[in-house]
Amino acid sequence: MKKTIIKILGIIAILIIICFVIFTNKGNEKENNTLVVGLDDNFPPMGFRNENNEIVGFDIDLANAVCSKLNMTLKLQQISWASKEQELSSGNIDCIWNGFAYNEERAKTMTLTKPYIKGEMYFILKDGSIEQSQEELKGKKIGVQTGSVQQLDLEKSEFGKNVEIISYSDYLTAFMDLETGGIDAVFCSSIIGNYLLTSKGKNYRTIASENISQTNGSVIAFKQGNTELRDKIENALYELKEEGTLTEISEKWFGKDMIILEEKENEI
């Protein structure tokens, strides 16, 4: 009788262990099937909150299309743009996907996709400003977003040594300060610049930048060494490009096709 009880208890223990393993694996499977995207939710038109407080934008549509193709669940996670690298390296997010521009420093510390969209870098000034060239902006106050590639490039450039660089948590705040005269110009990409100029319905002027920007376009960033997830997302982007989906999304947000994703190299 005692041996029988021991056997029964042993079987129960084994069943408990099996159930635990099964449910744990299911939980991990669900977790691995979710793509956690870190973004600044105040960066139109790439990712921002609409009047219903929903996060929308060009990159959001792209991420949704990719996740739909890969049967993944998209989770959007708002992060501080100034600490985006720490969010990624700690595993709090799977990728940074929010108008994230390429530069060599980022390529050394993160795993990046190929650039998929690109805008020109320029200065935005209020209508009526007397400056007509970048040279005439020397000695002025230039606004940038904290942690942006525009801030990094401007700080490293020779021109940046001759201006006062003012950083803001987001470009919307920088534009507000431009309107009130707190700064003389905003340095940004035409991707966000064109959208903001159109949406504000006010007159602004732009001055092309010279010998400042080093970016080749926007990329998606993953934790250093995570080539498996990078390749998975990048392959989905190539498929969406061939299907014409990327062009459709670009035309929706920009009125034209701004996709620059290079042709995929044939495998040998």
Overview of this protein structure:
The structure is a single chain. The chain has 268 residues and is α/β, with parallel strands linked by helices. It has two domains: 34-118 and 217-254, D-Maltodextrin-Binding Protein, domain 2; 121-208, D-Maltodextrin-Binding Protein, domain 2 (3-Layer(aba) Sandwich). It has helices at 2-32, 58-70, 84-89, 104-109, 149-156, 171-180, 190-200, 227-243, 245-254; strands at 34-39, 42-43, 47-49, 55-56, 73-78, 95-101, 110-112, 121-126, 141-145, 164-168, 185-189, 204-208, 218-223. A five-stranded mixed beta sheet has the order 5-1-6-13-7. Helix 2 packs antiparallel against helix 9 (245-254). The longest helix is centred in the first third of the chain and has 31 residues, at 2-32. The radius of gyration is 24 Å and the shape is globular.
Task: Indicate the mean pLDDT.
Answer: 87
Task: Indicate the CATH class of the largest domain.
Answer: Alpha Beta
* Gyration radius, rounded: 24 Å
Low-confidence stretches: 17-30
- Large-scale geometry: globular
Query: How does the helix and strand content classify structurally?
Result: alpha/beta
Instruction: State the end-to-end distance.
Output: 68 Å
Report the strand count: 13
Q: How many separate helices?
A: 9
Strand order of the largest sheet: 5-1-6-13-7
Question: Main β-sheet: number of strands, strand sense, barrel status?
Answer: 5 strands, mixed
Q: Helix coverage percent of residues?
A: 40-55%
Number of self-contained structural domains: 2
